[in-house]
Write a structure and sequence with these properties.
CATH superfamily: Aldolase class I
Strand order of the largest sheet: 2-1-8-7-6-5-4-3
Shape: globular
Keywords: Lyase
Order of helices and strands: EHEHEHEHEHEHEEHHHH
InterPro entries: Aldolase_TIM, DapA-like
Distance between the termini: 39 Å
Pfam families: DHDPS
Protein name: Dihydrodipicolinate synthase family protein
Family: Belongs to the DapA family.
Radius of gyration: 17 Å
Number of domains: 1
Helix content: 40-55%
Length: 262
């Protein structure tokens, strides 16, 4: 059962665009004693922008330097067929689980969303984290649909990034035995009962995230909000801001993003 702070790793790149294995190792070393899992190639890792080689290398290096932490590989691709193919690669790389959005097709019917996850579970024998978001896929998973998906075998967690504290509270209250992780730093104080947190701040301040989970308070929420403002985490290109700070700290070698390397 997953809990605590899981870090959605940024993807450290060299100026050439290749994933920097040394930077991946230093990043993991800088936070590994304060997190419970590593989630590469999700949104904070520019997962939807990575080439197949970049995705492969980032996941491979994360597994290699995980120091015993579970690796939950993000897969952000437009179609169910593409996700299944990528999931098969993830299995071969030795990840513990995958984290997956809905297909990239705004306006999908809820039954189509359910069928996407059911097909994935049937095709690939690896545990699944549901990533509930709208910014990338264009879809929101309805509560009833999400509860149905959670009843599929092998669903081990939800990254709940709907942006609605009310929705998250309803999901927690359903008590399906599936851990729910808040995906927005600014909502942590409003969602008592979540199993943990998955958000970009964990790349920089995992201890602050842990403190909030252990003893939620408005004072700690204000400290988290201030950190998010300081590091630019509420920007549309928040991953760029995280990279700039990690580069300033000399944890990673460059603050290059996928766009920069093209």
């Amino acid at each position: 059962m997953y809990s605590g702070t899981i870090v959605p790793l940024i993807t450290p790149l060299a100026e050439t665009g290749a994933v920097s294995e040394q930077s991946v190792q230093r990043l993991i070393d800088s936070i590994r004693h304060q997190v419970t899992g590593l989630m590469p190639t999700l949104s904070s890792g520019e997962g939807w922008k990575l080439s197949e080689q970049q995705w492969h290398d980032m996941v491979s290096y994360t597994v290699r330097h995980s120091a015993g932490l579970p690796v939950l590989a993000g897969i952000q691709l437009p179609t169910t067929e593409q996700v299944i193919a990528r999931a098969e690669t993830a299995v071969s790389l030795g990840v513990a689980a995958i984290a997956v959005t809905t297909p990239f097709a705004p306006g999908l019917a809820q039954e189509e969303i359910y069928s996407h996850y059911r097909a994935l579970r049937a095709a690939v024998p690896i545990p699944l984290f549901i990533y509930n978001e709208e910014a990338l896929s264009g879809n929101q998973i309805a509560l009833d649909t999400l509860l149905r998906i959670c009843r599929l075998p092998g669903v081990v967690g939800i990254k709940e990034s709907s942006g609605s504290a009310e929705f998250t509270r309803k999901l927690v209250a359903a008590d399906l035995g599936i851990p729910v992780f808040e995906g927005w730093e600014n909502l942590l104080h409003e969602v008592p009962g979540v199993a943990g947190f998955v958000g970009p701040l964990a790349n920089l301040e995992p201890g602050l995230c842990n403190d909030m989970l252990a003893a939620p308070s408005m004072e700690r929420q204000k400290a988290i909000d201030a950190a998010c403002e300081r590091y630019g985490l509420f920007r549309d290109d928040w991953y760029r801001s995280v990279k700039k700070e990690l580069c300033r700290r000399r944890v990673i070698d460059t603050d290059a993003t996928v766009e920069d390397a093209r």
